[in-house]
C-alpha cells in the first residue's frame, strides 16, 4: 500500500500543477517549461517533509533528504531551482518553510475537492485514505451503480448513485475526478464528470479516455508496474542477499 501511495501522489501532484497552471494562479506563472519528471517528484519531497515535521526535525540537507528518498542531492537541488532559491548554503533546508513553498508551487493550499466513481475495493481504499486531507485533497463525492453500496457511509461520505454524479459534482464544486470503474464504463463516467465541470481526472481504468483538450487526464495502470517488476525479476541476474 505504501508504494502504491507513492505512485498516486506523484501523479496527483502533476495533475494539480497543471490545473493551477490552467487557472493562471500567481505562483504558477512560470516563464520556463517544467518537466513532468520534476513535477512528479515535488509531492515526494512534500510528503517526506511532513514526516520530518512530525519527527520534530527543523532542518535537513539535500544529502539527507536524498538518502531518505533514493534521489541524488544534485537532483533535488536542481528540481527546486526551477522554482527559485531555497535553503541556506552550509545549513540546509528549513523543513516547515520548504514544505509551505512546495504547497504553493503545487497548488495544495486550495484544498481540492475530489469525487470518486466506482466504490469497489480500490475506490473504497482511496475513499478511506486519510493522507488525502493532509495533502490538500478533500473527498466530497462517492458514486456507484451497485444498490448494495449506494447509501453506505464510506470514509464519512455517503455513496450516491452514479446517475446523480453530474448534478452532485456541479452542486458540490468538485474539481477532480478519480475513476476506479471497469474499463467498459470508464469513458461514459469520464464524460459525465466533464459535463459536471471537472477538468482533472485520474483514471485507474486500463483504457485511453477521449476527452476535450481542456481536461487533464492521467492514468495509473497497476498492471504496467507489475509487468515492469516481472521483467526485472526475469531478466536481471540474482544478487547475493
UniProtKB/TrEMBL annotation:
Domain CoA-binding: 107-208
DNA bind region: 44-83
Domain of life: Bacteria
Listed InterPro entries: CoA-bd, NAD(P)-bd_dom_sf, Rex_actinobacterial-type, Rex_DNA-bd_C_dom, Tscrpt_rep_Rex, WH-like_DNA-bd_sf, WH_DNA-bd_sf
Pfam families to which the protein is assigned, alphabetical: CoA_binding, Put_DNA-bind_N
Gene3D superfamilies in alphabetical order: NAD(P)-binding Rossmann-like Domain, Winged helix-like DNA-binding domain superfamily/Winged helix DNA-binding domain
Entry's Gene Ontology cellular component terms: cytoplasm
Molecular function terms from GO: DNA binding; DNA-binding transcription factor activity
Record's subcellular location: Cytoplasm
Main function: Modulates transcription in response to changes in cellular NADH/NAD(+) redox state.
This protein's name: Redox-sensing transcriptional repressor Rex
UniProt source species: Anaeroglobus geminatus F0357
Amino acid at each position: 500500500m505504501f508504494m502504491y501511495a507513492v505512485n498516486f501522489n506523484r501523479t496527483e501532484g502533476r495533475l494539480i500543477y497543471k490545473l493551477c497552471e490552467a487557472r493562471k494562479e500567481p505562483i504558477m506563472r512560470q516563464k520556463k517549461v517544467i518537466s513532468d519528471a520534476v513535477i512528479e517528484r515535488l509531492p515526494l519531497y512534500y510528503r517526506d517533509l511532513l514526516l520530518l515535521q512530525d519527527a520534530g526535525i527543523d532542518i535537513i540537507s539535500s544529502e539527507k533528504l536524498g538518502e531518505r528518498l533514493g534521489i541524488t542531492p544534485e537532483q533535488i537541488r536542481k528540481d527546486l531551482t526551477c522554482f527559485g532559491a531555497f535553503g541556506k548554503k552550509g545549513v540546509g533546508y528549513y523543513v516547515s518553510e520548504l514544505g509551505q513553498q512546495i504547497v504553493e508551487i503545487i497548488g495544495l493550499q486550495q484544498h481540492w475537492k475530489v469525487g470518486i466513481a466506482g466504490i469497489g475495493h480500490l475506490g473504497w481504499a482511496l475513499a478511506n485514505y486519510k493522507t488525502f486531507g493532509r495533502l490538500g485533497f478533500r473527498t466530497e463525492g462517492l458514486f456507484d451503480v451497485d444498490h448494495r453500496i449506494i447509501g453506505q457511509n464510506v470514509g464519512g461520505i455517503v455513496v450516491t448513485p452514479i446517475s446523480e454524479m453530474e448534478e452532485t459534482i456541479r452542486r458540490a464544486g468538485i474539481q477532480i475526478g478519480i475513476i476506479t470503474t471497469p474499463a467498459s464504463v470508464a469513458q461514459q463516467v469520464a464524460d459525465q464528470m466533464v459535463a459536471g465541470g471537472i477538468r482533472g481526472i485520474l483514471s485507474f481504468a486500463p483504457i485511453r479516455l477521449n476527452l476535450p483538450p481542456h481536461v487533464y487526464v492521467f492514468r495509473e495502470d497497476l498492471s504496467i508496474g507489475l509487468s515492469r517488476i516481472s521483467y526485472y525479476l526475469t531478466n536481471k541476474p540474482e544478487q547475493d542477499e
